[in-house]
Sequence to fold (257 residues):
Amino acid sequence: MEIYKSVLMAIIGLIVVALPIHGFAFAASPDPASPLFECESKIWPKYATLNSGTVPFAGFLNNTLCLQGNITIEGANDAIEILAKHNIERILIISPGGDAFAALRIAMQMLKSHVDVYVSEICASSCANYIFLAANQKFILKDSVVAWHGAPFVQPSDSADFRNLWELHKSFFGLIGVDDRVTYDIPCDVLKNRDYLEALNKGKHPAWTYKKDIMIKKFYISNVHMGWEPQSDEELRAVPEWGDVFQDVYLSQGVQC
Fold:
């Protein structure tokens, strides 16, 4: 099983990539106090007007920072500047992941700023590995999911970039007290899932998610609040608005090999 698992992790590869994600045109939350309402009704329209209809990765208003889309170095620079210069208390994020080093830099700044995070739709890959875990209070909104599919360390490298990323990764997890196996240790029940293996063989980037009690008890992820808790893969796929986003996300019971 260990050899089999190593081969699968090698297939996943060195780079933490972004999962597919569809557009960001959602109906605003009916709760004016929610960060989702703030982002959808005020912040994203404001930035779209200023940028010829384009919504940047990072935008803010008052104490809310809205992050949406793939995580890039440029987007990280904008997010870090906002966090450093403004009294941001909460982050609303919709992201399939992206550049691991960029996500780590945002996460390290989040630790200094002591912010909460609200996940809408999906937070996967480097978003799950770092940004979600860096938050003080972690809210997963209804019909949304945090998904992991591997850390960028499954194939060791002697490059300076790899060493820098690895050192920052270790430093980050040392600060937050979370077991970093959550980022790379593929659960056995996922490894044995035929649909997961088929998606992997097709060159997709299938991911897995956990129930709240597993996040807390097994990986020591604190302050997790869930607006819903799916009980099966089928329940993930049945989400009315964006179940297709979760097509290659599998629910694990936390069984490690």
About this structure: The longest strand covers residues 116-124. The chain is about 40% helix and 15% strand.
